[in-house]
Write a structure and sequence with these properties.
By secondary structure, this protein is of the alpha+beta class. It has one domain (2-80): Heat Shock Protein 90. It contains two helices and four strands, in the order αββαββ. The longest helix has 12 residues, at 2-13.
């Protein structure tokens, strides 16, 4: 998830900054990547984030993308983790 999100930052966002965060709590690993870029990231079929969402769902995870045009973008994944 982090690699896919950072690839999108580098290719598309025109961001000056990005941050990565991780938190493990109560059997869930939450991972997020945020940037101050132009926004517009989406879970459209056939794009990298949609494929990432499919892979996360396959292991019981979830993906959220918040990326209004004009930015910022936040991509968050939650995975079950003991």
């Amino acid at each position: 998830m982090i690699a896919e999100a950072l690839t999108n930052v580098a290719k598309h966002s025109h961001a000056d900054r990005c941050a990565i965060g991780l938190r493990h709590s109560e059997g869930t690993l939450r991972v997020w990547v945020t940037d101050d870029g132009v926004g517009g990231a989406a879970l459209d079929k056939g794009h990298g984030l949609c494929g990432l969402e499919d892979r996360l769902h396959a292991v019981g995870g979830r993906l959220w993308v918040t990326s209004p045009y004009g930015g910022p973008t936040a991509i968050t994944a939650e995975l079950p983790c003991c």
